[in-house]
Amino acid sequence: MTIRIGLIGCGIMGADHAAILHRDVAGASLAAVYDADTARAEVLAAKMPGTQVAASAEALIADAGIDAVLIAAPDALHAPLTLACIAAGKPVLCEKPLADSVQACRAIVDAEVAAGQMLVQVGFMRRFDAGYRGLRDGLRSGRMGAALFLHCVHRNKIAPEYITSPLVLANSMVHEMDIARYVLDEDYAAVTVIPARASRHSTSRQPQFMVLETRSGVVVNVEMTPDAQYGYEVQGELVCEDGTLSLAPAPPVAMRHAGVSGYLVEEDWRPRFVGAYRTQAQEWVAALRAGTNPVGASAWDGYVASATAAAALASLAARQRTEVVLPPRPSLYG
Ligand SMILES: NC(=O)c1ccc[n+]([C@@H]2O[C@H](COP(=O)([O-])OP(=O)(O)OC[C@H]3O[C@@H](n4cnc5c(N)ncnc54)[C@H](O)[C@@H]3O)[C@@H](O)[C@H]2O)c1
User: Fold this and answer.
1) I need a surface site. Which of 14, 108, 114, 214 has the fewest CB within 10 A?
2) Which of 12, 60, 75, 234 has the most ligand 1 atoms within 8 A of CB, as the residue to mutate?
3) Angle between helices 130-141 and 174-184 in degrees, nearest 10
């Protein structure tokens, strides 16, 4: 059985998802693509044998020849497109964030609950990264004792100009809001955001330092530097009662050259997480073929990440510790 996938949004992420589906995923075909920029959709379709260009996003979702939809369009379109997929009864892998507001995320959760079926997976691909899975599995094994701290670093070489301080939280640090909750397997009680001085490399945003407190008392700290200049890097160290677990440097090749000994640093996030994107696509398709629930972040997880981001934005604005308040989790999500 081949899952026929329709892709909406053929930009940086859409083109990468298409290449992964075509090259690395058994049992799936990229049947159609759509982009508001028709030329962009046509260029991508021309590289993929058998891929059609759809007339509109709505036509792609309604097409009986499409079994599942992958959304890689801008954030503001995630909610309407995901809701249309749920209304059509089609599984959907939507890039993060699930939507551009907490209310829109809640509407998606409500629609899925009304449909009585988990159709939505959110593209929080770090859940498929071998390193973060190792942190989670190591903690779950019980041999490290209880978690105490999770130290995270997230640095971009140069962020795009439209990334303002609020978007540093809602678009970039939302990855840590999701992955720390996944590694620790518990919800947050509160968040505190402290902006650093503005770097001379950007006037539109400040680097941010965030402290998340989980309900059981684990402290997660995240340094996000959007204009680190030297390259892209994430770090993670989980401190437990009986030892620590850390993400290893990637790629795992050390170099000695021109008086320097160390590890090469990636230009952006894509090489660092190429394996995670591949595993995400493979496991999404495998679950679709098996007829089981999605294995990645659910619509509820997407809602929680956005609610956490909203609390973080409130903390940034008020310069104070802010509680993360969540409604009861619907039974659909276990
Ligand atoms: N998971 C990750 O690590 C990660 C990384 C980067 C971006 N993202 C997310 O992926 C999404 C896409 O980001 P990107 O970097 O590829 O952006 P991009 O700007 O490169 O691509 C977006 C594409 O959407 C198209 N588009 C615009 N309006 C449209 C419409 N009405 N209908 C269909 N297509 C439309 C644009 O023409 C463009 O080709 C965003 O939601 C972003 O937050 C996720």
Assistant:
1) 114
2) 12
3) 30
